[in-house]
From TrEMBL, chain A:
Protein name as catalogued: GerAB/ArcD/ProY family transporter
Superkingdom of the source species: Bacteria
Topology class, membrane: Multi-pass membrane protein
Pfam families: Spore_permease
Keywords: Germination, Membrane, Transmembrane, Transmembrane helix, Transport
Subcellular location: Membrane
Main subcellular localisation: membrane
Family to which the UniProt record says this protein belongs: Belongs to the amino acid-polyamine-organocation (APC) superfamily. Spore germination protein (SGP) (TC 2.A.3.9) family.
Residue stretches spanning the membrane: 12-34, 46-71, 83-108, 120-140, 147-167, 187-209, 221-244, 273-295, 307-324, 336-358
From TrEMBL, chain B:
Protein name (database record): Spore germination protein
Transmembrane stretches, start-end: 297-317, 393-412, 424-448
InterPro entries: Spore_Ger, UPF0353/GerABKA_families
Annotated region (Disordered), positions in chain: 1-28
Keywords from the named record: Membrane, Transmembrane, Transmembrane helix
Keyword Membrane on entry: yes
Similarity field: Belongs to the GerABKA family.
C-alpha cells in the first residue's frame, strides 16, 4: 500500500478530541433553520425524523470507521487510490475534494446571508467573506493542532447558547406535539432525509481518522459526539414545535433565530443579534475542517504547501461568492448540496465498505498463496 | 521559529578560545608584565599596582574586591613567602578560590570580575585570588508583585544573593545550577536553574540550546533575554514569566519549570509558562480554596471585562441600539445626547487619557504620582463630563476596564490586556458585534498558535488535560492539586506513578 500516510507521533491528536471535532463540524449554519424543511415533510413528528436521521448517522459512522480500520494508517483518499487505482481513484478523490469545497462554500454563503438579513443589511458580502477567510487562513497555517483547538474552543465557548435555547419554553404549548405519529412513516422518513444538510459534518473522520492517537477509542467519541448533537437538534426541534404552530414554522426561514427573538434578559434585549455575531466562532471550525479535508485530498494529486493551498482556496471561494446573490439561489444551492451530501455521506460509505472488505479478503487470499 | 541561522556557541571558556585565538603568554619579567597589562586594559584610573617585594607584584581593580580579605589574608601571607614560585603562593593562601593561569587575557578577565593577580618575577604563571565583592542594595519587598499574605522578600540585582535566596527556599541536592556567560561586550553571567528529576529534560535542553545560540553584544536585563529566547518574539503575548518574587520562582521550579537568573537584573525568568498561569498569583495558594477560587474567577472575568467592555459599549451605541433594554437606554441616550462625537472617538479619547495617566504615574516619582491620580481621575473626569465631551456612563465603563486590567498579577501580561483593547474598540466601531467577534476569534487563534519552549501555550485548557483543571480557573483544595502541572512534567516520574497520565500527558504537542 503505497498510499499509506506517514504520520509522526507529535502530529497526532488525542482520541477524546474527536468528540469536540465532530460536534463542532456538525453544528453550523444548518441549525439556523432546519425546522422548516423537516416540519414541511414530517409535520409535528419532525422530532422523530431528527432521531431517525441521527440513528442513520450512527450507522454510517460505524461503517465509515470499519472501512478506515481495514487500513493501518490511511484516509479516504488513500483508500480510494488503493481500491480503484490511480485514475478512477483520482476521480473519486477529486469528487470528494469538490464536495468539501462545496460544503465550505455553502457554510460561508449561508452565514453571510444570515448576517446580512439580521444584523447588517448594508455590510458588503465581500467584506464578511474576506474577514472570515482571513481567520480561516490564520488558523489553517497553524496546522492541525490549531484547527482542532479552534473546534475545542468553539464547543466550550458556545455552550451558553444552550441555556438560552430553553427560555422560550415559557410560552410553550405542549399539545402541539400531539398526536404522536400522526403522520405516515413515509413522510417521517422524508423528514429525516431533509435533515441531511444539517446533520452532515461527521464525515470529517474520513480524513482525520489516521491522525488519532488511539484509533480504537475514536469510535466511542464519535458516537458520543453524535449523541450530543442529537441532543441539541432534538432540543431545538422540540422547543420550536411547542413554541410555533406548524404553519408558522413552515413560513419561518430561520426558526431557531426567530426563537431567540422572544428572549428578554434584564440587561440585554434582542439576544439573537449577539448570538448571530457569536455564531462566527461556531462556523469557524466548519470552515477550518472542510478546507483541511480538501487540502488532504489536493495533496494526493500534487504535493503543495499548506500556505499556498489555503491562499488559492480562499481566493477561489472569495470570487465564488459573487454570482449567488438572492435567497432563492441560496436555497437552491442548499438543496443541491444536501442531495450530493446525501449520496456522498450516507450512501457511498456502504459501497466503499463492501469494496474495501472485498479487497482486503482478496489481499489476504493472495498473500496466503 | 523566528530565529535566524544558528550562530556560534558563546559558552564561557570555549568561546574565549574561539574568539581570541592568539593566546598571550604571561611575560616573566615584572615590568614587561605590567606594561602589557596596562596596554590591554588601557591603564584605567582604578587599577592598583602594589609591589610586595622585589619579585612579587599584585594588581587589582579598586572597588571590585573585598579590601578586608586583601588586608587580612593576602598581604600578610605574601609578605611571609618571598622568593617562591606561584605554586607555593597558591597553596599558602587561605582563600577559597585561588587559581593559576598561564594566559594573560584570561587573567585580565578574572581581574575584571574582581580578582587579585599575583605576579612573581621569572615565572610565566599568575596566581588569581578571587575575592570579589559586589555592591548591591539590600533585600527589599517586591514592589511590582505585591501580595498580602506570603513572604515579603524580592530578588535584587546580585545573582549570588538571588541564588542563595533560592537555595534557602529549596534545600535539595537535585537543584541544578548551570552557568552561562552572554554578551560579547558585557559578559553578563546568568544561571539556568532547574530541579533534576522534576523538570523535563527536553525543556532544559531547549533553554541550554537557545542561550548558547545567542550571539549578542550586550545583555543588561533579563526581560531582554526572555524576549530573545522565547518562541515567538513577534507576538504581543509574553511566553516566559518575569518575576521578582523568590517564592513564585521556587514554586515554578518545584512544578518542573526551568528558571533563569541574570546578573544585574532583579527579575528572574521562568519557562515554559502557559497563558493561564500568568493570571494566577502565588497568593492563591496561601488563601483558603473557596476564596482563592473566587478571586481567580474574578480575575479571569476581569480580563474579559477589560478587553471587551468598552468595545461592547461602542458597538451597542453605534449599531445595535436594539440590544439595550429600554430602562437602560433612556439614561444612556440622555448622557450621550450632548456628546458631539461618535462613540468610537469618545471611547478612544478616554482610553487614551487613561493610558496617559498610567504612563505618567509610572514615570513620575512616587510622591508626585499620587497627585497625578487625583488630577487625572477627579479633575479630568468630572470636567470632561461637565463640558459635555464624554458621557457619564462611558467614564464608568472606562474606569471599570482600567481597574480590571490592573488585577492581572503579572505586569507584562497586564500591559497586553490593556493594549489589546484598542484594536478591538476600532473593530467594534466599524463593524459592531461582528467586529468584536472577529477580534475574539483572531485572539483565540493567535493564542492557540503560540507555544512556550515548544509546549502548548493554552495548556491545560487546550490540549485538555482535565486533571490539571483543578488548579487553573479555579483552585481546589490542595490535596486535589497535582504538584507538577501544566507543561512541565518529566516523563519517567509519570510512568512510575500512573500510566494513564502518560497517555493523557502529551495529547497534542
Amino acid at each position: 500500500m503505497k498510499s499509506a500516510l506517514q504520520i509522526s507521533n507529535d502530529q497526532k491528536i488525542s482520541s477524546s478530541l474527536f468528540f469536540f471535532v465532530v460536534t463542532a463540524a456538525q453544528i453550523g449554519v444548518g441549525i439556523h433553520g432546519f425546522q422548516r424543511v423537516v416540519v414541511k415533510n414530517a409535520g409535528n413528528d419532525a422530532w422523530i425524523s431528527v432521531i431517525l436521521a441521527s440513528l442513520f448517522a450512527h450507522i454510517v459512522v460505524f461503517i465509515m470507521i470499519r472501512t478506515l480500520a481495514l487500513y493501518p494508517s490511511n484516509d479516504l483518499y488513500g483508500i480510494h487510490l488503493d481500491i480503484f487505482g490511480k485514475y478512477f481513484g483520482g476521480i473519486l478523490n477529486f469528487t470528494y475534494v469538490l464536495y468539501c469545497t462545496f460544503a465550505f462554500y455553502s457554510v460561508i454563503r449561508n452565514y453571510i446571508e444570515v448576517i446580512n438579513t439580521w444584523v447588517f443589511p448594508n455590510l458588503s458580502q465581500s467584506f464578511i467573506a474576506a474577514a472570515l477567510l482571513i481567520l480561516v487562513i490564520y488558523a489553517f497555517t497553524g496546522g492541525l493542532r490549531v484547527l482542532v483547538g479552534v473546534c475545542f474552543f468553539s464547543f466550550m465557548t458556545g455552550l451558553w447558547i444552550l441555556i438560552i435555547l430553553f427560555m422560550p419554553l415559557e410560552y410553550a404549548h405542549y399539545n402541539h406535539i400531539l398526536p404522536i405519529l400522526g403522520n405516515d412513516l413515509k413522510s417521517i422518513f422524508k423528514g429525516a432525509y431533509s435533515m441531511t444538510f444539517t446533520i452532515v459534518g461527521f464525515e470529517i473522520i474520513n480524513t482525520l481518522y489516521p491522525f488519532a492517537k488511539e484509533k480504537k477509542k475514536v469510535q466511542k467519541y464519535v458516537h458520543l459526539a453524535l449523541l450530543f448533537t442529537l441532543f441539541i437538534y432534538l432540543s431545538v426541534i422540540l422547543v420550536s414545535l411547542v413554541y410555533f404552530s406548524e404553519a408558522q414554522i413552515e413560513r419561518t426561514l430561520w426558526a431557531t433565530l426567530t426563537l431567540f427573538t422572544v428572549i428578554k434578559l434584564p440587561f440585554i434585549e434582542r439576544v439573537e443579534i449577539i448570538i448571530i455575531c457569536f455564531w462566527m466562532i461556531i462556523i469557524l471550525p466548519n470552515l477550518c475542517l472542510f478546507s483541511w479535508a480538501a487540502y488532504r485530498g489536493v495533496k494526493r494529486f500534487k504535493s503543495i504547501n499548506e500556505t499556498t493551498f489555503i491562499w488559492i482556496f480562499s481566493i477561489f471561494i472569495f470570487f465564488a461568492n459573487i454570482p449567488i446573490q438572492t435567497r432563492t439561489e441560496i436555497d437552491q444551492m442548499n438543496n443541491f448540496f444536501a442531495k450530493i451530501a446525501f449520496y456522498i455521506v450516507f450512501i457511498y460509505p456502504f459501497l466503499l465498505y463492501i469494496m474495501a472488505s472485498l479487497k482486503s479478503v482478496l489481499r489476504k487470499g493472495g498473500s496466503k498463496e | 521559529m523566528f530565529r535566524g541561522p544558528k550562530k556560534n556557541v558563546t559558552n564561557t571558556n570555549e568561546q574565549q578560545n574561539k574568539k581570541e585565538p592568539d593566546k598571550v603568554p604571561i611575560p616573566p619579567s615584572q615590568t614587561e608584565f605590567l606594561s602589557k597589562l596596562k596596554e590591554t586594559i588601557h591603564s584605567p584610573a582604578d587599577l592598583v599596582v602594589k609591589y610586595i617585594s622585589e619579585t612579587v607584584t599584585i594588581t587589582f581593580l579598586d572597588f571590585l574586591i573585598d579590601g578586608k580579605t586583601l588586608n587580612e589574608q593576602i598581604l600578610p601571607t605574601l609578605e611571609k613567602v618571598i622568593n617562591t614560585s606561584p605554586k607555593v603562593i597558591k597553596e599558602s593562601l587561605l582563600i577559597a578560590e585561588v587559581d593559576l593561569v598561564a594566559e594573560l587575557n584570561q587573567g585580565i578577565l578574572e581581574m575584571l570580575i574582581g580578582a587579585v593577580l599575583i605576579h612573581v618575577e621569572g615565572h610565566s604563571e599568575l596566581v588569581i585570588a578571587k575575592i570579589s565583592s559586589y555592591q548591591s542594595r539590600g533585600l527589599s519587598a517586591p514592589e511590582n508583585e505585591s501580595q498580602v499574605i506570603g513572604s515579603q522578600v524580592g530578588f535584587n540585582e546580585n545573582i549570588a544573593t538571588n541564588i542563595s535566596l533560592i537555595r534557602r527556599y529549596i534545600t535539595n541536592p537535585n537543584l541544578c545550577n548551570e552557568k552561562f556567560t552572554v554578551g560579547k561586550d558585557t559578559r553578563t553571567s546568568l544561571s539556568v536553574l532547574y530541579i533534576d528529576g522534576i523538570a523535563a529534560e527536553e525543556h532544559v535542553n531547549t533553554v541550554r540550546q537557545r542561550i548558547s545560540d545567542l550571539d549578542i553584544l550586550d545583555l543588561l536585563d533579563s526581560a531582554v533575554l526572555s524576549e530573545l529566547i522565547d518562541d515567538n518574539s513577534i507576538s504581543m503575548f509574553p511566553q516566559f514569566l518575569l518575576t521578582e518574587r523568590p517564592d513564585r520562582f521556587c514554586d515554578g521550579l518545584l512544578s518542573g519549570k526551568v528558571g533563569i537568573v541574570v546578573n544585574g537584573s532583579s527579575m528572574a525568568i521562568l519557562c515554559p509558562y502557559s497563558f493561564i498561569e500568568f493570571f494566577q498569583s502565588r497568593e492563591d495558594q496561601n488563601l483558603r480554596w473557596p476564596i482563592a477560587t473566587f478571586i481567580r474567577l474574578l480575575r479571569f472575568s476581569a480580563i474579559l471585562i477589560s478587553i471587551f467592555f468598552t468595545p461592547i459599549y461602542v458597538a451597542a451605541l453605534t449599531f445595535h441600539y436594539e440590544v439595550i433594554p429600554q430602562p437602560l437606554l433612556v439614561p444612556l441616550s440622555e448622557s450621550r445626547a450632548i456628546v458631539p462625537f461618535p462613540p468610537i472617538v469618545e471611547a478612544l479619547v478616554l482610553e487614551l487619557i487613561i493610558e496617559l495617566l498610567r504612563e505618567a504615574g509610572a514615570r513620575l516619582p512616587t510622591k508626585v504620582g499620587q497627585t497625578i491620580g487625583i488630577v487625572g481621575g477627579i479633575v479630568l473626569g468630572t470636567a470632561a463630563v461637565q463640558a459635555g465631551i464624554t458621557s457619564n456612563i462611558l467614564i464608568i465603563i472606562i474606569a471599570l476596564c482600567a481597574l480590571s486590567s490592573f488585577t492581572t498579577p503579572n505586569y507584562l501580561m497586564g500591559n497586553v490586556i490593556r493594549i489589546l483593547r484598542f484594536p478591538v474598540i476600532i473593530l467594534a466601531g466599524f463593524w459592531g458585534f461582528l467586529g468584536i467577534m472577529l477580534a475574539f476569534c483572531f485572539i483565540m487563534i493567535h493564542l492557540l498558535r503560540q507555544s512556550s519552549l515548544g509546549a502548548p501555550y493554552m495548556a491545560p485548557i487546550y490540549p485538555p488535560r482535565w486533571k490539571d483543571w483543578s488548579d487553573s480557573f479555579v483552585r481546589l483544595p490542595l490535596p486535589l492539586i497535582r504538584r507538577q502541572s501544566v507543561n512541565s512534567r518529566e516523563t519517567h516520574t509519570i510512568q512510575n506513578t500512573n500510566d494513564s497520565f502518560a497517555k493523557e500527558e502529551k495529547v497534542i504537542e
